[in-house]
Amino acid sequence: DAMVIQNPRYQVTQFGKPVTLSCSQTLNHNVMYWYQQKSSQAPKLLFHYYDKDFNNEADTPDNFQSRRPNTSFCFLDIRSPGLGDAAMYLCATSRGGAGGNNEQFFGPGTRLTVL
Amino acid sequence: LAKITQPISMDSYEGQEVNITCSHNNIATNDYITWYQQFPSQGPRFIIQGYKTKVTNEVASLFIPADRKSSTLSLPRVSLSDTAVYYCLVGSGAGNMLTFGGGTRLMVKP
Fold it and tell me: In this complex, which of B41, B94, B103 lies closest to A42 when CB atoms are compared?
């Protein structure tokens, strides 16, 4: 089945130690998103790629970066994780434009713990 | 940017119809309204999407009044497996402005 895959499902890192989360998709969608979801809160969009074009949300901290080497893969890099970055990180994809009129397909998420 | 509010929680019983309303007073002309369902430790899953009036699919209906400042997700005859958090998402067709409501935790009781 076509899907969005996130690895690892659980990641533990130390305060200040860089960490990379990965996302891959077999849907061949041109848009990929990264969301942060803290406990009992709604997902918050960090940024998205429309094909190779990177679109950063205005309030996304510089500590968060992303790479998309090809259509199928997208990475979230946290350069210096703080305790406040502990959250579930969700990757999503959509077909067509990166707008609200396109269904997003979400991966299962990576739960990040910062010690 | 649309400010989006939903009830924090709702309780229902199996077999009942559940209506969850989302308020989005600042919705923009190009914004669509989408509802997602999320189970614990899973990513959200698409339920339904609309722009105006009424949309129906095999699992839900979405009612949007003419002023589009609110929308109501209707789940017919809920079952225990519908216990989840339901999010309203308002998004602009122009791209970046995608905002989730705070989510409504639905508990379906036997």
Answer: B103
Please tell me the distance in Å from B14's CA to the nearest CA on chain A.
24
Helix (H, G, I), strand (E, B) or coil at B5: strand
Q: How far does CA B41 lie from the centroid of its chain?
A: 19
- Is the Cβ of A100 closer than 8 Å to some Cβ of chain B? yes
Going from the first residue of chain A to its last (115 residues), give the mean pLDDT of each consecutive group of 10, the final group possibly shorter. 89 97 95 95 92 90 96 97 97 81 91 97
The answer, for A45 touching chain B at a CB cutoff of 8 Å, is yes
Let me know: does B93 contact A99? Beta carbons within 8 Å: yes
The total of other beta-carbon atoms located within 10 Å of residue B97's CB is 18
In this prediction, residue B1 carries a pLDDT of 53
Minimal CA separation from A63 to chain B, in Å? 19
Please report the beta strands in A8-109, taking only residues with DSSP state E, as ranges in sequence order: 10-13, 19-25, 31-37, 44-50, 53-56, 64-67, 73-78, 87-94, 105-106
- Report the alpha-carbon distance of residue A44 to residue A18 in Å, rounded: 21
Q: Return the biggest CA–CA distance within chain A.
A: 39
Residue B97's pLDDT is 65
> Is A55 within 8 Å of chain B by CB?
yes
